[in-house]
Amino acid sequence: MPARPLCHVDELNEGSARGFALDRPGRDSMFLVKHEGMVHGYRNDCPHWPGSPMVWRRDGYLNRDATRIVCSGHAAEFEIASGRCTLGPCLGRSLTPVRLEIDAQGWVLAVIDAVETTHGD
Question: How is residue 10 annotated by DSSP?
Answer without folding.
Answer: G
